[in-house]
């Protein structure tokens, strides 16, 4: 039983470390900087900025953990979601697209 409780403790510590890079304050800062306000979580620019932040974090994680295939798959899905939002912005408003790409330093 002692080994089980130790594993549970390790597991809880690991879960507590997940998501710590993306606190509520960080999200509010991203949305206020790139959206219309800190509560504007639905704007394409805010979502693209949030996805970019998460992509950067996952990329750094994968540099140290090359065999973490679940994270790699999550990263690919996240990049696809960001690409879809960028494609939407191109069709909807090219000026907003150019502004967000320039702000975030994205290619294309």
From TrEMBL:
GO terms for biological process: translation. GO terms for molecular function: rRNA binding; structural constituent of ribosome. It comes from the Bacteria. InterPro entries: Ribosomal_uS15, Ribosomal_uS15_bac-type, uS15_NS1_RNA-bd_sf. Keywords: Ribonucleoprotein, Ribosomal protein, RNA-binding, rRNA-binding. It holds the Pfam family Ribosomal_S15. SMART domains: Ribosomal_S15. One of its GO terms (cellular component) is cytosolic small ribosomal subunit. The keyword Ribosomal protein applies. One of the primary rRNA binding proteins, it binds directly to 16S rRNA where it helps nucleate assembly of the platform of the 30S subunit by binding and bridging several RNA helices of the 16S rRNA. Forms an intersubunit bridge (bridge B4) with the 23S rRNA of the 50S subunit in the ribosome. Part of the 30S ribosomal subunit. Forms a bridge to the 50S subunit in the 70S ribosome, contacting the 23S rRNA. Belongs to the universal ribosomal protein uS15 family. This is Small ribosomal subunit protein uS15. The lineage of its organism: Bacteria, Pseudomonadati, Bacteroidota, Flavobacteriia, Flavobacteriales.
């Amino acid at each position: 039983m002692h080994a089980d409780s130790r594993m549970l403790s390790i597991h809880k510590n690991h879960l507590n470390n997940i998501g710590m890079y993306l606190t509520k304050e960080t999200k509010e800062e991203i949305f206020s900087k790139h959206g219309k306000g800190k509560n504007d979580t639905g704007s394409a620019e805010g979502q693209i900025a949030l996805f970019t932040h998460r992509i950067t974090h996952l990329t750094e994680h994968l540099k140290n953990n090359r065999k973490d295939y679940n994270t790699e798959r999550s990263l690919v899905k996240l990049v696809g979601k960001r690409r879809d939002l960028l494609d939407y912005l191109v069709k909807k408003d090219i000026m907003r697209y150019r502004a967000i790409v320039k702000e975030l330093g994205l290619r294309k």
